[in-house]
Design brief:
3 helices, about 70 residues, about 0% strand, transmembrane helix, transmembrane, rod-shaped
Length: about 70
């Protein structure tokens, strides 16, 4: 009787659970990456020169009122 592998096959049985755990962590982190708030987007547009100071202040005020 050969009890050395215990049904795991060639000693690589630990690889499957490790891959599954790795994939779970990968997909959970991916959802957290790209969540920018409206204020952050507005700040970036103003910093890059995409909108004027007046537009920035008006839109920022509007965002604060609708929170």
């Amino acid at each position: 009787m050969n009890y050395f592998n215990h049904g795991w096959g060639m000693g690589f049985g630990w690889l499957v659970p490790l891959l599954i755990i790795g994939l779970i962590f990968y997909f959970l982190q991916d959802k957290k990456k790209e969540k920018s708030s409206a204020q952050e987007i507005l700040d970036k547009r103003y910093a890059s020169g995409g909108i004027s100071k007046e537009e920035y202040e008006e839109k920022s005020r509007s965002l604060r009122e609708h929170e």
